[in-house]
Amino acid sequence: MPGGGRVTGYRASVRIVVARCTVNYVGRLTAHLPEADRVIIVKADGSVLVHADGGSYKPLNWMSPPCTLREMESDPLTWEVTNKAGERLVICIHAISHDSEHTLGIDPGLVKDGVESHLQALLAEQLDVLGIGYSLVRREYPTAIGPVDLLCRALDGLHVAVEIKRRGEIDGVEQLTRYLELLNRDPLLAPVEGVFAAQEIKPQARTLAEDRGIRCVVLDYEELRGTSDVGSRLF
Q1: How far is the C-alpha of 208 from the C-alpha of 200, rounded, in Å?
Q2: Class of domain 6-102
Q3: Lower Cβ count inside 10 Å, N or C end of the chain?
């Protein structure tokens, strides 16, 4: 393979190339992709990924950063991607149908909808879901083993500790049980009852909770958000 060529490392933009190419990986093992149309992505962090149109969301082959990309002036045009371990991804480009660069900027990251912090905030504003006349004492009420999601007061003055989960399983019931043991040692709070609230509660978790005197409440996230389509319901 001829020497020289243009070397690139960190980029300020993402380059997307749609090309007919062959790909060879040489490192801890060897792998070969025969000639076909593929999408090649050169990311701003230096990584290079080769994708096909079908099969999976994962790339067929890739090189993780830090690595360098050398574009060889050869026929066919050849890209040689090398990482610090000396592994090489050699892409021979036979024809390019698309080549563009895009500056994406800093990504804020994935924000999951319906996570426990969202449920906690929504439930704290709609305590009637737990019971008529409930009032909030505090969110994230501290204990020696961690904070209780919500500490509330019922209409009769009884304190209620609420543990919130997306999926209610046995571990969550055990966690709430430990909180209740600690809270009930405080003469200013005792007696403290427990509510296990989740979007889905497993049968085993419900059985354990009820056996320990803990009430279970199934949460409708869309209803809490006010986005449920009541008109489309049968009941």
Answers
A1: 15
A2: mainly beta
A3: C
Cβ(234)–Cβ(201) below 8 Å: no
If you write DSSP's letter for every residue of 156-192 in order, what string do you get?
TS-EEEEEEEEEE-HHHHHHHHHHHHHHTT-TTT-SE
Pull the structure tokens for residue 179: 């909180």
Q: Which CATH class is domain 116-232?
A: alpha beta
For the CA atoms of 30, 71, 106, 120, the dihedral, rounded to the nearest 10 degrees, stands at -10
Phi first, then psi: give them for residue 149, nearest 5 degrees: -55, -55
Residue ranges covered by each domain of the chain: 6-102, 116-232
pLDDT of 181 reads 95
Helix (H, G, I), strand (E, B) or coil at 1: coil
Tell me the residue type at 51: H
pLDDT in tens, 27-68: 888 899 999 999 999 998 889 999 998 766 789 999 988 889
Q: What is the pLDDT of residue 11?
A: 59
Annotate 43-83 with DSSP letters as a single string: -TTS-EEEE-SSS-SS-SEEEPSSEEEEEE--SSEEEEEEE
Low-confidence ranges of the chain (pLDDT < 70): 1-11, 55-56, 108-114, 227-235
